[in-house]
Amino acid sequence: MKAVCLLSGGLDSSTCLAYARREGFTCYALSIDYGQRHRFELEAAAKVAQSLGAAAHRTLRADLRLIGGSALTAEIEVPKHRASVEMASGIPVTYVPARNTVFLSLALAWAEVLEAASIFLGVNAIDYSGYPDCRPEFIEAFERMANLATRAGVEGKLRTRIHTPLLHLSKAEIVRLAAELGLDFSLTSSCYDPGPGGRPCGGCDSCLLRRKGFAEANLIDPLEYPAP
Fold first, then answer.
1. Residue 34, in any domain of the structure
2. Global pTM?
């Protein structure tokens, strides 16, 4: 069984790749260079793909800086030290317009060429920052569209399925699953605004959610954060 696994280099997508491998899939890892502020994650993705034995790892460029509209692709400040209530309310400026739609479309194209019926995506609808393209409704709608939009789907050669094994897990549950799968946490990068060498800022939403997950899982995050 072949699968295209979208891999950012972060905790969730890396766990998803490790999960797909455990489930017996031959994994083709796909990373997207979209002009993101936190470009260090692409280096992390390459290391994770190699560590987890991906059959291939490709990085495609889709420069979303030309569109902007996000703190990750434009000169907009990344919010720091937000309370959990704030993170659960509204859509933050770190949301990249249509990002997962773009990513899944690219994954779908490669999957069709590979004759792979499965695409893995590490989205999460519990401990996340309110992104609309992480919701179950979006995933279901994209899967329906995928089977209408490809030659393989129209000719009935294969039916595309979007796998989201982390969708209903808390961040702590994701951390525990990753540990069970043997993921090397030190290779991953989650920060939206990393410093030199990819050192996490410790205060962006992604850092806060990651740290919360490790704390609740009673596990130690090997990444070094700035002192409070």
1. yes
2. 0.96
Are 8 and 41 in contact by the 8 Å Cβ rule? The answer is: yes
Residue carrying structure tokens 């009673």: 218
CA 214 to chain centroid, in Å, comes to: 18
Does residue 133 lie in a domain region? yes
Q: Report yes or no: 13 and 130 within 8 Å, Cβ to Cβ.
A: no
Q: pLDDT of the chain along its 228 residues, tens only? A: 999 999 999 999 999 999 999 999 999 999 999 999 999 999 999 999 999 999 999 999 999 999 999 999 999 999 999 988 888 788 899 999 999 999 999 999 999 999 999 999 999 987 666 789 999 999 999 999 999 999 988 998 899 999 999 999 999 999 999 999 999 999 999 999 999 999 999 999 999 999 999 999 999 999 999 987
Query: Length of the chain in residues, anyone?
Result: 228
If one counts the domains in the chain, the total is 1
Does residue 9 belong to any structural domain of this protein? yes
* Cα–chain center distance at 155: 30
**Which domain range does residue 104 map to?**
2-217
How far apart (Å, rounded) are the C-alpha atoms in residues 143 and 134? 13
**Which contiguous run of DSSP H or E holds residue 119?**
strand 118-120
Would you say 123 and 166 are in contact if contact means Cβ atoms under 8 Å apart? Answer: yes
227, part of any domain: no
Phi, psi of 188 (to 5 degrees): -85, 160
